[in-house]
Amino acid sequence: MKLAIxxxxxxxxxxxxxxxxxxxxxxxxxxxYVADNASTDDxxxxxxxxxxxxxxxxxxxxxxxxxxxxxxxxxxxxxVFCLLNSDVEVTRNWLTPIxxxxxxxxxxxxxxxxxxxxxxxxxxEYAGAAGGFLDKFGYPYCRGRIFNTLEKDNGQYxxxxxxxWASGACLxxxxxxxxxxxxxxxxxxxxxxxxxxxxxxxxxxxxxxYVGTSTIYHVGGATLNALNPKKTYLNFRNxxxxxxxxxxxxxxxxxxxxxxxxxxxxxxxxxxxxxxHTLAIxxxxxxYYKNLKKLLKPRKxxxxxxxYYQKTxxxxxxxxxxxxxxxx
Length: 328
What we know:
The chain is globular, with a radius of gyration of 19 Å. The longest helix has 22 residues, at 275-296. It has a domain at 229-320. By secondary structure, it is α/β, with parallel strands linked by helices. It has ten helices and 14 strands. The strands form three sheets. Strands 1, 2, 3, 4, 5, 6, 7, 12, 13 and 14 form a ten-stranded mixed β-sheet that branches. Strands 8-9 form a two-stranded antiparallel ribbon. Helix 6 runs parallel beside helix 7 (229-246). The mean pLDDT is 96. Helix content is 38%, strand content 22%. It has helices at 13-25, 43-50, 64-73, 95-104, 175-180, 193-203, 229-246, 251-271, 275-296, 314-320, and strands at 3-9, 31-37, 55-59, 80-84, 88-90, 108-117, 120-124, 132-134, 140-142, 145-146, 149-150, 160-162, 170-174, 207-218.
């Protein structure tokens, strides 16, 4: 199995300097690429000088996560792509369980390792923790992370199990499946494009798994932190995009309830004196309405009417019923 690790970079010299050595040291059987998204710093020169074994792909523009990877992966020949954030420290033998899981599960198209917090290594990390799921209204959550509540890693998720979506912080995908799905939807730009990709893979009948015996440490928020209204805008907008494109069932009802819940979140931001985040949700909704006609078109290509959710509303479970942890 030929494996290519592809790290998307934009003005991230400091991150590459800090984290690339662990990837090189612990990934002897993989080819390593840095896909540069038209950086204006000296990232590319730095990598060429200090890490000559790493191959460089230079994109002509910064198209965000989605277009950045779509453009870069066209130039790479491999059986499996590992899309790895630049702010990730990997561990010894992290690739072995991943490769074995692919080999032993032919229908598995996408894998995710255990994501722990680089800044607090006993805790799961927000971006993917121990594998992702959705509720009926498109809100994402993870084993090990519900909204902002993070669990400690006590070995409770050391299994290999089916999940609904894998984190874009470290996502392994078979190259033929990535190409069959036409890669990421570039209208997402960044945030939640991996959920849309995984959802489309599920609708095609593929399996997605979490491998808890492979561990990485993720900084998170290195590009946009949680306090940035742009992140709020992209998360709310892109969640609606993915829901409209892929959800089966009574779409009008699902979207209506989702919009109401988003409105409640906007009011909550106001009470928290974060009006820029309320405005970001409003902007997300207006952009969603603008793109609605285009978003409805892919629905006619859905092959399998899968049940995409475990819980009806993670929002009610978390905020009303006070269930803060995945197992509750």
